[in-house]
Amino acid sequence: MATLLAKRVGAMVVIVVMLAAVIFYLQHISPVDPVHAMLGGQASDSQVGAMRHTLGLDKPVFSQLGTYLGHLVQGNLGTSYRTRHTVASDLGQYLPATLELAITGLVIALVLALLFAVGSVLRWPGAGLYRLVLMVGSSAPVFLLGIAGILVFYKDLHWLPASGRLDSSYTPPSGPTHLYTLDALLQGQFGVWWNAVLHLLMPATCIALGPAVSIGRVLRSSLEGELNSDYARTARAKGLTEPKILRKHIARNAVGAALSMTGLQVGLMFAGVLLVELVFSWPGIGQYVAQSVPVGDFPAIGGVTLVLGVAYVVINTVVDILQAVADPRIKL
Asked: How many Cα atoms sit within 13 Å of 332 on the Cβ side?
């Protein structure tokens, strides 16, 4: 296990360094001049030259790359041209909202996928209808699902809120995580917690439907294959029921492929989060990027890209390790 862990972490570091180098190259060839973006078009030549020297832009490219990577190690993602704040501080403000939405969406996706797979394999009543509804929902673009959800559940039924993280009548909980649902629970503010949950339901479900179907299909296929195996037939001959065989003998062997698909779907979920945030006016990094792109704020765009890329790589590394835990044969 230690060897596998070392290999996966080493590969993760290499990929992150390569991603950072690509982002640096794109920033280097960008038509937006960072000096003029920071000083404005009326800056004198002497001011421009002094700023270029301060930023190290008068050094060779490889020296600039080394400086850029060194700053990343220190957590310095640069300064936003638009907000004039460091990108790290901006992300500290916007990232918790995106994390809360993405984590909730992933949890919903896993629950829906588990119901999809187990209900299909055990032939629960209504499983076919549930599978059909889930597949129809997953075939629609996430922004269209969001708009439809607002029209139905907010405008017509008045069940769920349409935007934001909390109603204006509630004060956001102050806490270490800045995840409203978690901080509200820690502080015993159950009214705030429930209101935050209601705000999460629609956007999180929109980004969960697509991954739920993909993960559920893979898990169903694995479960069906294992149920036809020799050891499953032996357990069945001993009088064990199908749910008990599934729970005690099949689940661990079948989960590996579903874990791999979960890691792959995380990247698609990140893309869906950015779109859903715009539809639901969710104050996360999707809003941050949407405001940064029109003004060519490359440090902000590059910082968000790097953070999402690192998150994707880390999650897939964790998935590889979990697969080894579930199936010890992978260690070999």
From this structure: 3
Rounded Cα distance, 252 and 151, in Å: 41
Spatial contact of 239 and 230, defined as CB atoms under 8 Å apart: no
What integer pLDDT is reported at residue 327 of this predicted model? Answer: 67
Burial class (CB in 10 A: 0-12, 13-18, 19+), 157: exposed
Q: Are 101 and 204 in contact (CB under 8 A)?
A: yes
Is a pLDDT exceeding 90 seen at residue 9?
A: no
Q: Is the dihedral of CA 64, 70, 72, 76 positive or negative?
A: negative
The stretch 66-95 carries a mean pLDDT of 87
Query: Cα separation of 50 and 204, whole Å?
Result: 47
Structure tokens at 227: 């149920």
Nearest Cα neighbor of 314 from 64, 102, 66, 165 is 102
pTM tops 0.70, yes or no: yes
Q: How far apart are CA 301 and CA 292, in angstroms?
A: 7
Average pLDDT, the chain: 84
Domain 94-331 class, CATH top level? mainly alpha
Spatial contact of 98 and 286, defined as CB atoms under 8 Å apart: yes
- Sorted by where each begins, the domain ranges of the chain are 94-331
